[in-house]
Amino acid sequence: MYQSLHVAECHLYVQPARDARPLGAGDLADRCDTGCADNGIGTTGDGETDTMTGSWSKWLRIPSLADRLRAQGVREDVIAAAERTAFGRQTDRALPALNDVLTKSEGVIQLVEGRYHGAYGLLVLTSRRLVFLPAESARDGQTVAVDLSDVLTVDWQVHRGLGVVEVTTGAGPFIVDKILGNQAESISTGTRQAMSPPPDGPAAHRDPLEQLAELRAMHDAGLIGDAEFQARKQDLFGQI
What we know:
This protein is of the alpha+beta class. The chain has helices at residues 29-38, 56-59, 65-71, 76-82, 98-101, 183-195, 208-220, 226-237, and strands at residues 3-7, 10-14, 42-43, 49-50, 108-116, 119-126, 129-134, 144-147, 151-159, 162-169, 172-179. The protein folds into two domains: 3-59, no CATH class; 65-237, Pleckstrin-homology domain (PH domain)/Phosphotyrosine-binding domain (PTB) (PH-domain like), CATH 2.30.29.30.
């Protein structure tokens, strides 16, 4: 039977004799110094582990959400929206599936985690639609899409500390609840703005991440070339 001992930031696994007493941190100070040093963790002169000088932080680096999504081929506009979203039920696992739901001609403006008809998933606002995509765990749920042209009203409220988005359409109500923080208000406001784009004239300040999502959608649809896409993308990166 092996005994796991944690000395400073180092784990050692030893097999004590049958009648031996349990080993303590002090019994392994010298061996921890050696083991930690061999594994790239620095030690101070008094035997304490100095993790600041070690290399574990480099090769044990945990990938960010954006890193993981890019590795799965997720669209950049989805990644940008996901980085601004608070997730509480691991519905971010459904993000790669958006590639099969979204069209190349629409850009993602915002997404939030919520519940629709008892299924948790993602409520996504694009330049053309509101889409609810159930999470992987909610296999009985169905993807629901509402064109912004069919939306009559958008309201939000707070119920028991969680946000609720209430959308009225010609076909009936579309309600998503269990939304964290102030995201219900934010996506409701964004939906109203997407429904009523400003008239031609002096452009108001816009979120560069939203502009980047639309730019990518235009490039994917073949409306702009590679050179223009790269130039405008670099300009937007400078504003972020």
